[in-house]
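Late entry, written up from scratch paper. The run itself happened at the end of the previous shift, but nothing got recorded in the book at the time, so transcribing now.
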Amino acid sequence: MRLHFIRGALAIVLCAAGAYAAPVAFNVSGTFVDGTALSGTITIDTAAGTVTAVNVTLGSPDANTYTVIQTGVGSGAPSYYSIPLGTAASPQGLPSLNLLIPPRTTLVGYAGGALCSDSAPCSGVTSGVWLGVGNAVALTSGSLSTSGPTPPPSTPAPPTWALIGLAILLAASAAMLRGRARQV
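Output as recorded:
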């Protein structure tokens, strides 16, 4: 009986270890005050709360492709979550596209939504393109959305499941030892 309990608990832990949320590709869309169109994708690991890949394009007149995640991701909390992006030619410099997600301190469990913009500012701050000192273009409206169903809520990562499994096994072992001590 006890051996069956331990086997069952171990099977649950091993099956659940692979059931964590995978990265989600979000479609980026929007328009800037000068008419520039915003499009592309941002991949977010919603279990870890990290941006893993970006491919965002701006049309004319501010045409550029942003494929580099710059330093400073997450700054601005709790009013917004910042995702600063750079180009391959200037990964940490200008031009820089800064997308702001309202009001978040983390991307864990993120399911998409509006970006901070002129139509929905975050504490007076908007997403925008920084082209140089005193030369910025604000986002009029924009959003991140999934093309499929809403991503599932985040689940604990495999190391968390491993710890839970270890706790179950230790509790089962302690119960077995208590049972043997009573028999002696």
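The mean pLDDT is 82.
(Scratch paper discarded after transcription.)
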